[in-house]
Write a structure and sequence with these properties.
It is a single chain. Helix content is 36%, strand content 21%. It is of the alpha/beta class. The chain has an eleven-stranded mixed β-sheet. It has a four-stranded mixed β-sheet with strand order 2-1-5-4. Strands 18-17-16-19 form a four-stranded mixed β-sheet. The longest helix has 18 residues.
């Protein structure tokens, strides 16, 4: 029996039996987190402006906090507060000086956002990551599994220094700050991780793959899939298990894995564990417990206070903009099956910050959720309210019925005379009839979404599809500097993005002809 693996597994198991009485009620944990956040930030410029010192003596401090502090999006948070931290001023929205800023543009915005990453947030991310790792014994892996490498694919760990702070991808920031004990397991290692050019990093990973013994992969599905395909091709083997025989788990984040399952299974010799996590630039929000079949459990006691806005017409415009005076609920007030937009107050100095993601509760008592999309990444031209979750499930059903692999896709809505139309873009290297695909996707959405079914009769005149080689999607990502790392292709294309995408398709077709 491998001694190191046995010791690590035993340590993981012991960590799951804490000594003493533990509070496991999400509502009470959230109250404690909010009070701690307010106490820590009371002497910051933000805390002084909104009277955090006085809130601490208020028996109804949570209600006072919600009534006093306004809801922020990135623009208002940066314009009013974070720009001061970016200029080196300490104690703006969180104690001390911010040393790191995560650069992110998501899938819908062109310009980069600077999200503060404090030392407290880095510790919170490490705690959450360790907790998730501690759950591995529940999957029944053998002792030797715990000695294997963990391949983590993210942004470059090479960070740009701007006089008072470092900036870069969050995955690069966290990799640069990984605990010393984890460096033994971490692949591709610090040297390769520093590489900024995705094509060079990819080649280095493929070249070194045969010398690694990988047990767990972590990363965005599209890029992990490309890595596996390249390795299989380089070493002329049938599956990734021919190179990494001990590969047993894949942790994915940031995008629904459902459309990728079929293509992943083609690259494997046997089933592996799929585990979902929810790590955003603003913090580690949730991860999947082994006992949950689909949802992730939010982390209610780790430096983030959550609030929820029902994602409906009363609170949001058809463009996904927040209306004035929306209804806001705490974690003890949410309902199963309803869709919410997420607000965060964090130990990185975000306050009632609308992150832009939407989610649905599977089990409110356990704070178990599934991600459904983005507040501005849904399609509702005439009230059909089609979410990313609907789109992902429809694509999954199409792959299952036609036995094809669709690695990337997007949808857009357009005017069709006095009515409307939906147009799908499907990225696959398999043979696929676009008319049949459009007909089936239309039928799936009518089964999945009652609003869509009604509007399909009343207002949506036509549904069409365009089948494109997968490389067209990857080339578009590369052209926009979103190759590799945590970048995702947008699922819903609005006006400007759609025009750019259509121009890219025309350019690609003209080069081929």
């Amino acid at each position: 029996m491998p001694l190191l693996g046995s010791l690590i597994r035993k340590a993981f198991e012991l960590r799951q039996f804490p000594i003493g009485k533990q509070d496991t009620d999400p509502a009470r944990q959230q109250q404690q987190v909010l009070k701690k956040l307010i106490r820590r930030a009371r002497e910051t410029a933000f805390g002084e402006h909104y009277g955090f010192e006085h809130m601490l003596t208020d028996p109804h401090f949570a209600e006072t906090f919600k009534a006093t502090v306004p809801i922020h999006d990135y623009s208002s948070m940066f314009k009013n507060w974070w720009y001061r931290s970016l200029n080196g001023e300490p104690f703006v929205t969180w104690p001390g000086r911010v040393r790191y800023f995560a650069l992110t543009s998501g899938t819908s915005e062109a310009s980069s956002k600077h999200i503060p990453v404090t030392s407290d947030m880095l510790m919170a991310i490490q705690r959450a990551s360790t907790r998730q790792l501690m759950l591995m014994p529940k999957y029944g892996f053998p002792d030797e599994f715990y000695e294997k490498g963990i391949l983590m694919i993210g942004g470059s760990t090479h960070l740009q220094y701007n006089g008072t702070y470092y900036q870069g991808d969050l995955s690069g920031i966290t990799a640069k700050n990984i605990p010393f004990w984890f460096q033994h397991f971490y692949k591709p290692g610090m040297r390769i991780s520093r590489e900024q050019e995705w094509s060079v990093k990819l080649e280095e990973i493929v070249r070194n793959a045969s010398s690694w013994d990988i047990g767990i992969m972590v990363g965005v599905p599209a890029w992990i899939q490309i890595i596996m395909e390249k390795i299989i091709d380089r070493y002329k083997v049938r599956t990734i298990h021919d190179v990494w025989p001990n590969l047993g788990a894949y942790v994915h984040s940031g995008v629904s894995f459902e459309p990728y399952i079929r293509s992943f299974e083609k690259l494997l010799a046997r089933p592996i564990v799929y585990n979902e996590s929810y790590l955003a630039s603003e913090g580690y929000i949730a991860y999947q417990h082994p006992e949950n079949s689909r949802g992730m459990e939010m982390i209610p006691d780790n430096g983030i206070f959550f609030e929820f806005i029902p994602f409906n017409d009363a609170n949001f415009t058809p463009e996904g903009e927040l209306r004035s005076d929306p209804k806001v609920y705490g974690i003890h007030e949410v309902e199963a099956g309803r869709e919410y937009a997420l607000l965060l107050s964090t130990c990185a100095g975000a306050w009632r910050y609308m992150i832009g993601d939407t989610l649905r509760f599977v089990n409110p008592a356990k704070a178990e959720i599934i991600l459904t999309g983005r507040t501005k990444q849904f399609i509702s031209l005439c009230g059909e309210h089609v979410s990313q979750d609907n789109l992902n499930r429809a694509i999954g059903m199409l792959q299952e019925e036609l036995h094809v692999t669709i690695s990337e896709f997007a949808i857009t809505g357009v005017r069709s005379g006095n009515l409307f139309a939906h147009h799908w873009y499907l990225g696959t290297n398999d043979r696929l009839d676009p008319v049949e695909a459009a007909t089936l996707l239309d039928g799936y959405l009518q089964l999945l979404n009652d609003d869509y079914r009604v509007e399909r009769i009343e207002a949506i005149r036509n549904v069409t599809a365009e089948v494109l080689p997968l490389q067209v999607f990857l080339d578009w990502m590369k052209r926009h500097g979103k190759e590799g790392g945590a970048h995702k292709f947008p699922r819903v294309l609005k006006q400007a993005q759609r025009d750019d995408w259509e121009a890219h398709i025309r350019s690609t077709k003209s080069q081929v002809s």
